[in-house]
Specification:
270 residues; two-stranded antiparallel sheet
Length: 270
């Protein structure tokens, strides 16, 4: 995408902050469970592979629904759907810190997000959302099924951007209605000039999910190598991609994460 050195570093830092934030939030969540004598098996009661199946089915179904609503020009319905989802995720985030008081705070932040916030404010709220979702997935799936989901999403992202191209249609449609489920970088207004850069939420959530799952189950070098893989994949995409063209970031980041985790496994048995 031929971004400047400043933008290059900024994008990579945002990804690393998301990963680190997800790890810290997950550790905090586990400490809460421990203090309440609750195990993760009591919270995530269905098998991990079912979470993968449900998530993929939900992703495809929800994407199809949003595309239909965009085609029908039902922006109001899209708005309320995302507003409810965002609020529920924020309830999960804030309730972890302040209990029941997290509910009114989540509602206030959601109102701010849609009615008052500029790009910087939205990016900060989005970061909390991505950290929360990445943490929930890491705890629910564990390493094995986080690897499976990462691989599936990488393939899906490639098909959705380069083949069917419905993900590009989805992103443009969301921007046309004034919101975007990702990080809007280097833009002063919500309607983006053509030379500005956005990175989708999934391109931050899924790398954070896998790195966090690895952190919880393997020694630190495994986490560092996995995170390096995600960083390298995103860096190569930024350096080699053409400006103004949409790219499936997970198709680059996912395989690199899996590769470097595999390198750790290989080195650990030699």
């Amino acid at each position: 995408m031929k971004v400047s050195a400043f933008k290059f570093v900024k994008v990579l830092l945002i990804m690393l902050i998301t990963i680190l934030g997800t790890v810290l939030f997950t550790l905090y969540t586990l400490s809460l469970y421990s203090s309440l004598n609750i195990s993760t098996s009591q919270v995530y009661v269905i098998p991990s592979y079912l979470y993968v199946i449900y998530f993929i089915a939900g992703l495809i179904g929800f994407t199809a629904l949003i595309l239909l609503l965009i085609k029908l020009k039902l922006g109001g319905v899209i708005f309320w759907m995302f507003a409810v989802i965002l609020t529920l995720i924020l309830v999960e985030f804030f309730s972890s810190f302040i209990g029941i008081f997290g509910i009114p705070l989540a509602i206030l932040v959601s109102y701010y997000y849609y009615r008052k916030a500029g790009n910087t404010g939205r990016n900060i709220v989005n970061l909390a959302i991505f950290i929360t979702v990445g943490s929930v997935l890491a705890l629910a799936l564990g390493v094995t099924f986080a690897l499976v989901l990462t691989a599936v999403v990488a393939v899906y992202d490639y098909i959705a951007v380069f083949r069917t191209k419905h993900m590009v249609t989805l992103a443009k449609g969301m921007l046309d209605y004034g919101f975007f489920a990702g990080m809007i970088l280097m833009a002063k207004r919500l309607k983006l000039p053509k030379d500005k850069f956005v990175i989708g939420g999934g391109d931050l959530i899924f790398p954070a999910m896998l790195s966090t799952a690895v952190f919880l189950s393997y020694p630190l070098p495994a986490f560092l190598l996995t995170t390096f893989g995600a960083t390298l994949g995103l860096a190569l995409l930024l350096l080699l991609g053409r400006k103004g063209k949409a790219y499936p970031a997970m198709a680059a980041m996912g395989p690199m994460e899996i590769l470097f985790f595999g390198i750790y496994i290989l080195l650990s048995v030699i």
